[in-house]
Write a structure and sequence with these properties.
Structural class: alpha/beta
Radius of gyration: 22 Å
Shape: globular
Number of helices: 13
Helix content: 25-40%
Amino acid sequence: MTTRARDRSATGDDARDLWDPVFQGRDPGERERAARDALAREWERVWELPLSFLRDKYQAAGMGRDTLPPLDAIPRTSKAELRENERRNPPFGTHRAVPLEHAIRLGSSTGTTGKPTLIFYGARDLEVHIEVGVRNLWRHGVRRGDLFTHSWPQGIYPTNVAGGRTYLAAGVVEIGVGPPVTPEVAAEHLALWDLLRPDAFMMTSAQLRTYEEAEARAGVAVTDLLSGRILVFLEASCQFPHPRLRLEKAYAVSIRNIGGASEIPGLATSDCRFHTGLHAAGDHFILQACDPDTGRELAPGERGVLVVTAFDMDACFIRYDLEDVVVAASDPCPCGETGPRYTLLGRSADVREVAGRKLLPVDVQLALEEFGAPEFRFLPQSTGGALDLEVESDGRGSAVKDVLQLSLGVPVEIKEVETGTLPRSTFKPRRVMG
């Protein structure tokens, strides 16, 4: 069959690493000064806009309009606090800088870890969302005229609310098929891709497994579709060399990792071809990896929760704790981008503390690499002092247990199940029970 796979050894203007090299590659000192000035403007907005939730919070901490506190001194805000604010002040709370009557678009998170969050976009929010999206597409290696397909949710999920505008701005043809919610739907996606032969794909690791399981039904091999293409991938373990290289070799594909937060306009992050961490837009975000207890910023390389401060948009997020566990980077990236960069490890809600160690699903994934990264999940914590896991091990449970205990440095108990028996997510993988 004829293939559209483009020669990725681009030359000339298409070969540059950054969409806007001058702006994205600004001197770090200049960028940091601009961010500090923008933070001062955001502080003013808190007292000018109808944001009584934030004003009350800051006044209770002894802060006022006239003095901008050090960033670390500003109290963090969590999603749980915003939900409680909406419960006390229905229906939309008193924390929104863009009220419903001023919104030009509406969106919603998926609610992967709880109740979906409604998002009200102002005009500037949408502009930022589109600009960041174009930068990410370029960073992925996607170019004008390419066909880009993705399995992201539709409806009022941000991909559908603003994504089409991003692809139009980049000159890229979007093929949004939605999640593979059933084996039949997954097979339909494979058949469509076999016909169109997209240049780049975006999916999660759970979705990739679903498509592989639908190959026989569709009569289409996933490896054939992906060979020579770009795979924009949501899978924490593939930020690390061994898992990424294993998959790149298996599918003859070029992987780009992604992250972000749907409730914050424009907070879509991705790594570059050098795979040094997920890049964020430094002209709109200050990112901190903070101690989950004190809220103080940690040194680069230490695990902390991702705390986001946004600026120069309609939305207002100051020290918003995403409760994602990350490691921030400070060394220069060879691609030339000077904005914030981090490695995403997982959700703080998924942390299991065993024998004094705080473990995430990605820690288990990396330890399971030598077994081909079988699917697994954390079982509810027992009182036995061990990490309890359910693993698709096909009779290798004893070996899996030994490797995990050695790698993680904690006692491990394994419940073996056959390959393909653990539940498959249609979007983001969930590897934690209870």
